Structure formats: structure tokens, C-alpha cells
Amino acid sequence: MKQLQKYRIQIAALSETCMYDSGVKLINDFTWIFSGLPSTTKTRNAHGVAICLDKVAAKVWKDSGSEWEAVSERIVKIRLNCLFINLTIISIYSPVNSTNNQMNDDSQNFYNDLQDVINRIPTKDMYIIMGDFNARVGGKQQQQQNLCNSVGPYTADITNENGEKLIDLCTINNIIVTNTFFKHKLVHQTSWMHPGNKQWHMLDYTLVNKKFRSSIEDCRMYRKAAGAIGTDHHLMRIKIKLHFKSRRKLVQKKVVYDPIKLKN
């Protein structure tokens, strides 16, 4: 019997990279798949997203056909053909919570684009959406509504407008917010501190389609990891373990014995 090898791969989803154009780059030992605004359009709000693969992950991705898509300066997608499950990974950077009509339009366009991407993913794929959603979910009202169990009991905020859009996206597509299903200390739940009131919030999330929920083993923040790279968001790390496909159980017909015939 052929022995199956276990592969441990590391994939990072990066938000607000301020990288222009889109493409694939090899930086040191890491492969970057990035998407941003055209370099001809210089702006202070460059946004930009990227997916960074280590050597093992890059090999799996290349063996899978190097499939990727730069949807916009806020969404980039790759697809990996794994041994048991095909994996689609989406890195995002959502607009900030709307304070005027322009921001509201940007946010709505972002969620429309993200919905289009989800609609094109094969139904058998496990897909993971990671990044800065600039959304807050939670509160007593959210717990009472309990919309399709998309949001778990471990939240740190009260739902805002972006949070409602995020919950709608999860409810429509049968997705869960994995952060909210693992109990951790508050310092390991929140990822960003408001510069004004100095309060910590949970703005970064990892979403996964619900039928693959058991593959997510943990999701939490690491504060010290982000101190050396000049960001005001802390590192979000998730552990994923892809399982074997379960065998279908054979339904056996119930045998009914005739006691009279048994006596004979």
C-alpha cells in the first residue's frame, strides 16, 4: 500500500499592501500573487492585496496549474488542487465602514465583486476568505438573531453597517466566521486598536464554507508577530487540517424472520 505523505504549507493573505498592478513575483523563497491599482493611477489610497506562498505551497500551486485571478485592487484569488480537496483562497481588503454615500457605494461594490467570485467557485471546493473586513460583529442583538449560525458566541464588538453586510454574505452563501467559534482571551481575539479611544476591535476575519468547518482547528491573533513590519493590525493565524473524504455508509436492509418457519 502506498504511503501518503503529509505536507505542511504556509499561506499568508495580505491586506493594504499598496502594491500597484497585478502579477506574480518571487521574493526570496516566497511566491507573491498580488493585485492592485494600475501603476498609471497614483493615489494615496492604493489599497492592494496579495497572497504569499512558501516553497511547498508554491509547488502545490504550480502543480495545480498556477490558477489565479486579480479581481480588483481589493480582491485576489488562487486555487490549489490538494490530494483530497480542492482549495480556493481569497485575500481581501474591505472599504472602511461608510460615513457618506461614496464610502457606502465602495463597500457595496466590494461585496458585489466578492459575491461574483464566490458564485464562480466550484461547489465541491473548500474556500477560505481572509483579510481586513473593516467590520464589527457581535452584541446581544446578534446573539438573539443567530442568523444561520454564521457568527459564533465569541465576539468582541457590536455589529456595525459593514458587519451587517458581512453577516448577509455569510448567510446567503452558508459561510461561517471562524474567529467567533474559538474561545480565546480578548487580547487574542482583537486585531486593531482605535487610535482615538484606544479600544481594541476585531476587524480581521477568516471565513470558510460551513461544510468544511471541522477542518479549521484554531483561529486567533498574535500581537508580537506584527510589531516588526510597521502595521497597526496584528497577525491572524488559522490552523487547517484537511481530512480524508468520508466513505458512504452502506444501508443494510433489515431482515425480518418468520418465527413459524424458524420452528420448522
Which secondary-structure class do the elements indicate? alpha+beta
Q: Which superfamily, in CATH terms, is the homologous superfamily?
A: Endonuclease/exonuclease/phosphatase
**Strand line-up across the major sheet:** 5-6-7-8-12-9
Low-confidence stretches: none
The biggest sheet amounts to: 6 strands, mixed
Task: Report on the architecture of this protein.
The chain has 264 residues and is α+β, with helices and mostly antiparallel strands. It has a single domain, classed as 4-Layer Sandwich (Deoxyribonuclease I, Chain A), CATH 3.60.10. Helix content is 20%, strand content 28%. Helix 2 packs parallel to helix 4. The radius of gyration is 22 Å and the shape is globular. The model has no long low-confidence stretch (mean pLDDT 86).
Characterize this entry briefly.
By secondary structure, the chain is of the alpha+beta class. The chain contains five helices and 14 strands.
List the helices and strands and how they pair.
Blueprint: E1 11-15, E2 22-27, E3 30-35, E4 49-53, H1 55-63, E5 68-72, E6 75-81, E7 86-93, H2 101-119, E8 126-132, H3 140-145, H4 161-173, E9 175-177, E10 192-193, E11 200-201, E12 204-209, E13 216-222, E14 235-240, H5 259-263
Parallel strand pairs: 7-8
Antiparallel strand pairs: 1-4, 2-3, 3-4, 5-6, 6-7, 8-12, 9-12, 10-11, 13-14
Helix pairs in contact: 2-4
Give me some keywords for this one.
4-stranded antiparallel β-sheet; 6-stranded mixed β-sheet; 264 residues; alpha+beta; Deoxyribonuclease I, Chain A
